[in-house]
Specification:
Number of helices: 5
Mean pLDDT: 82
Strand content: under 5%
Helix content: 55-70%
Number of strands: 0
Structural class: mainly alpha
CATH architecture of the domain at 49-104: Orthogonal Bundle
Order of helices and strands: HHHHH
CATH class of the domain at 49-104: Mainly Alpha
Shape: extended
Distance between the termini: 57 Å
């Protein structure tokens, strides 16, 4: 049964010449993705500036707590707290029902 699932490499190459649909997202997925990015940007803009900076440095730029602390001139514990507060606030803004949201 397992051998039936094997497809020769030559057959895979032929699929490309047939113009078979690729795994690219359709226009509707692009619209949804743009809307989600817009919502995320709006939520980030609502965070306190230092908290937003720590979140962006950690989650977008991929810096370590030590690197963020050095760049922001604060302690690593403060970075940890800023990131935790930011993540909680973003989750509230993006995922909680409107009536249950806390203000950021």
């Amino acid at each position: 049964m397992r051998r039936e699932q094997i497809i020769p490499i030559e057959a895979r190459a032929d699929l490309e010449t047939l113009g078979v649909a690729r795994d690219e997202p359709g226009p509707d997925r692009n619209v949804i993705a743009r809307d989600e990015l817009r919502r995320l940007q709006e939520a980030l803009d609502r965070l306190p500036p230092r908290c937003r900076e720590a979140i962006v440095l950690r989650q977008v730029d991929g810096l370590s707590r030590r690197e963020i602390a050095h760049r922001m001139g604060i302690g690593e514990g403060t970075v940890k707290e800023y990131v935790a507060q930011g993540v909680r606030a973003l989750a509230d803004m993006l995922y909680r029902p409107e009536k249950n949201r806390r203000s950021a």
